[in-house]
Amino acid sequence: MTEAMSQTDDALLDAVRAGDVGAFDTLCLAYATRLWRFSYSIVGSREGAQDVVQDVLLNVWERRATITLSGSLTAYLFGACRRRALYYLRNNRTAERIGQQWTADDVPGMARASDGPHRALERDETRRLLDQAIAQLPEARRQVIALRWDQQLDYDDIAHVMQITPDAARAHVSRAYRVLRTLLRAAGVEFP
Amino acid sequence: MSIDGRDDDGLPLEAYLAGELHGESRARVEAWLRAVPEREVLIGRFIAAAAGGDDRSVPSAEEIVAPIRAAMGTTGASASTQRSAARSTSSMPSVPTRDGIARRLFLPSTRGLRSIRRSAVLGVLGLAVLSVAVLRLWTAVRAWRTDRSSHTYIAARMQRTTVTLPDGSRATLAPETRLRYDVDRQGARTVALVGEALFTVAPQSHAPFVVRTGAVTTRVLGTTFGVRRYPDDRATRIAVLSGRVTAGGHSAPVVLASGAVAYATDSTVTVSATDDPTEATEWTRGRLVFNDTPVSAMLATLGRWYGYEFHLNDTTLAAMHVSVALSTDHPADAMNTVKAVLDVTMTFDGNVITLRPERDHGGSSRNTRTREVLKTPQVEVGR
């Protein structure tokens, strides 16, 4: 979260506080897909992710007059989505394990069945290594990675969202980075 | 590797993945990733798997927001309807309940008493709407009367100046820049610009801030960005330091996020892959940064800042591209640097400077040699 972005966010939030529907719509559009993706990574279903994002954003509108942020708007929204998603999970035991959603054909550059037996084998092996690497990540660490490398939040925001210290967030990233490095080496991809 | 530092081979890969790298170091990591395509693919798959799957399965923002809009009773079909919706709701307590209230009030009824009550309620509502309309008209007229005058700001040759516009926005003007500020009756703030300026816009949710440079329009909501278009520039350069702006000529506007530098002509907007917005606005901090700039264009800028008039008859040299940083406050030092970089002799006659190539060597070899000189740090002149 750059200072620049937070300036725009502050302006948006001030307008929302004043009851500006247009500004609220802009805010929703700006964050919708990011919050959806992060929520999806926790609840594991499309309907669940949609419900979570909708609840969180409508809650912002309903509480607009009294809402106070202890951190940035980004941190607030992702944190609210995380809480809401975990709550959703407790009440809906439908969470499919994430990481199983995509198939080789969905990922650009990945070997396909039509590539012949050799490439297919390579793909299965890579896929196994990847699943293994992801399985190594504790749930909290996986969420930190989603926030840092997928959503590109800074450590302060991640700390806010995860309710941990920025140093703990750094430690998660550092360990996950090691897992990534091991994965690349195991897959035979040259890596420092 | 240390997480804040660099990898074993000196690459800040983690910072790259976190989107914190820009400019040259970003380009270096990207080149490294592409050198072995599997690197990029596998890292991408790792992040995608950790973050919940393939990006393509994510619904569009419009799809996600649609049920929210439905719950709010807004359409969000276009920015203008959003704005008018925003204006008309400020007097309402809570939009989500609006639909419910309306439905209860206007429910068709067969009973006489209900219908009398209904017309009474309608009358009260009508009166309320009328008074709101009168109030709005009055505020609009007042706003128009106070803001109808336009303001013009000018920075002369060799002059840099910072002005505060009537809405509280600030603009820093580069030499030979003319800026006219207007507020229209809808409250939209419009700036007509010839030259170059850095804007820090005071956020006003209802009132867009628009900079016009010829046919190119740059539109913002509270942000810091530089716009440049001198009369002899072929395109408008827009450098976004913070926030977001949209820019476009006759075509559909393009959204530029912070960190972007774009060149907009009347018909196209091209986002530069290499330009750094900080460099592009360094002049506000006393430094002129030229990055792969034609010598002729550099001399035109130096003329505006230092008040010199440059004569250069060597067309090969004029077309050559240079990268150099110069201080705005020390013309003499800057001229020495330019002299060394271009490998020329300078003859001063009043404010006219004539440049002649030092030695007669081929254009291509000079090009190479100059580039080598340019990459050395001592070329950078501090403040």
Task: Describe what this molecule looks like in 3D.
The complex is a heterodimer of chains A (192) and B (383). Chain A has helices at 3-17, 21-43, 46-62, 73-91, 117-135, 139-150, 155-162, 166-186. Chain A is mainly alpha-helical and 192 residues long. The longest helix of chain A is centred in the first third of the chain and has 23 residues, at 21-43. The model of chain A is unreliable at 95-118 (pLDDT under 50). Chain B is of the alpha+beta class and 383 residues long. Chain B folds into three domains: 13-108, no CATH class; 151-278, Jelly Rolls; 286-375, Phage tail protein beta-alpha-beta fold. Chain B is 38% helix and 26% strand. Chain B contains twelve helices and 18 strands. Chain B has helices at 13-17, 23-35, 37-50, 61-72, 79-89, 98-105, 112-147, 277-280, 295-306, 315-319, 331-342, 363-375; strands spanning 151-155, 161-164, 170-173, 177-183, 189-200, 209-213, 216-220, 224-229, 236-242, 245-248, 254-256, 261-264, 269-271, 287-294, 309-312, 321-327, 344-349, 352-357. The two termini of chain B are 36 Å apart. Residues 1-6, 76-113 and 362-383 of chain B have low confidence and may be disordered. The chains are: A mainly alpha (192), B alpha+beta (383). The interface between A and B is large, with 77 and 71 residues.
